Amino acid sequence: MMTRRQHRPSDSGPLKDRVVVVTGAARGLGEGLAHALARRGARLALLGLEEERLRRLAAALPGRSAHWTVDVADADGLAAAAEAVRDTLGEPSVVVANAGVALGGPLLECEPAAWRRVVDVNLVGSALTVRAFLPGLLRTHGYYLQVASLAALAPSPLLTAYCASKSGVEAFAHAFRAEVAHQGVGVGIAYLSWADTDMIRAADETAVFRELRTHMPWPLSATHGTAPFVRAMVRGIERRSAHVYAPRWLRGANAARACLPSVITYRSRQVLAAHGDAPLPPTGLLGPGGSAAGSAGPDHPELRAAEEPRQAE
């Protein structure tokens, strides 16, 4: 469905009349990014699982926009969406793989289907997204932005699925950049710290994330509003940047990444040993977006059960 608004976006700039695809657009960073890009004159193709939120977002954006309800782990659904985007808005010049979910808890306690769903959405879904839209990016000599995380630089305990998937998308984006550079397609990786989104707010209500965040040193423990992250990503898209860091201190974390696993292991050993045998139950897929991803995932009873986070007393 396409919506036209009467008030006008920007009449100039590198994104004017460019078609930009954003996955995970229904809320959080994806929603904020859609607003910022539309104000710069882009035509927005909004992809996600929450149809009503996508519809309202498309109606609120200036300029031309359209939305499609699709699971990024569904190759056939993405192929159909890519064809519809081309027919409705035109060939994409930018694709942002933003869709992501998280699950916290000790590996042994996490439901296998929920653990796998995190990897399917975050890693497999990113690869399927760019594969579906790559023919258009090749024709426009476009730009692909992969949303990674601090978790790709500093993998943390109790987040094995999330860290594996974000490290995976980082490696995928590096390999993909080398594969398409000679064809004029740019590839960027956005390294983002904790953003104040529904997913992170839901995480902070669980025992697992309270344990992690309480013992993290500043600035690793700090949560930031979404605006700085959106600004950094928009700037990266406009410049076709190879790397986007938000906050900027993550650039230093990248430089020090060889040391970070040892530091984190040393600190985690102290924290988890002090915690003793007290249970740290798994969180399930976090937040409203996680619930939507769980509902759209494979029909496994253990995945349905994992959709509701289990709170510790």
Task: Outline the structure in words.
With 313 residues, the protein is of the alpha/beta class. The protein has helices at residues 28-39, 51-60, 75-88, 112-140, 150-153, 160-180, 198-203, 207-214, 226-239, 250-255, 260-275, 287-296, 301-306, and strands at residues 2-4, 19-23, 43-48, 64-69, 92-97, 143-147, 186-192, 243-246. Strand 3, helix 2 (51-60) and strand 4 form a beta-alpha-beta unit.
Number of helices: 13
Biggest sheet character: 8 strands, mixed
Overall average residue pLDDT: 86
Whole-angstrom Rg: 19 Å
- Which ranges are low-confidence, i.e. pLDDT below 50, for 5 or more consecutive residues? 300-313
Strand order, sheet with most strands: 1-4-3-2-5-6-7-8
Kindly state the percentage of residues in helix: 40-55%
Which structural class matches the secondary elements? alpha/beta
Strand content: 5-15%
Shape: globular
What is the strand tally? 8
The end-to-end distance, rounded to whole angstroms, is: 45 Å
Instruction: Summarize the helix and strand pattern as letters.
Output: EEHEHEHEHEHHEHHHEHHHH
